Amino acid sequence: QVPLVESGGGWVQTGGSLRLSCVDPGRTTRYSVIGWYRQRPGDTRESVAMITAAGSPNYADSVKGRFTISRDSDKNTVYLQMNNLKPEDTAVYYCKQYPGGTWGQGTQVTVSS
Description:
Helix content is 0%, strand content 49%. It is an all-beta fold and 113 residues long. Strand 4 and strand 5 (46-51) form a beta hairpin.
């Protein structure tokens, strides 16, 4: 399976915002659950947010109220709007179909204090 392509990462100060994008170049996940995951330095990869094909979101407790996941099926893209970022949000962020799918390269998010 062709991996999804993440973009939009960068460097921000505490309290800043970023919007990540996850594009499906193979156009195979229109009816799939898509998840955003992150891997902080020295930690295992964890789920951050997920969205169903119908647009129902689910969030990890650590990001509730700060992150918003959405999808534009016409553009084969899932977004992760991240507001009020904290240094502990620093990680490589990945998106992937759930279940299954293939990990992509991810996009680095760095939040400075």
